[in-house]
Design a protein that fits this description.
single chain; 78 residues; mainly alpha; 0% strand; globular
């Protein structure tokens, strides 16, 4: 497997940490709604990125942008 890109932030070790990280990032961006991602979706992002925060942010942004017309529902794996 390729080595993930270097990042000055330490890797997010598990899905709960990734969930907290995403919550902080979304609040910093001004989001004040309900949870945007389900726990299985966060787990998939954490595993796919090996917890590299920058990559988690990129994937979550692209998922949120793609799912923006979903009427306020949380984004899931389906």
């Amino acid at each position: 497997m390729p080595t993930p890109p270097s990042d000055s932030s330490p890797a997010l070790p598990d899905d709960e940490t990734a969930l907290v990280h995403l919550g902080r990032s979304l609040r910093a961006a001004g989001y004040r709604g309900n949870a945007l991602f389900t726990k299985p979706a966060v787990r998939a992002m954490q595993r796919a990125t090996r917890g590299v925060p920058r990559l988690v942010n990129i994937i979550s942004f692209n998922c949120a942008r793609t799912g923006a017309g979903g009427g306020g529902l949380a984004l899931d794996l389906g």
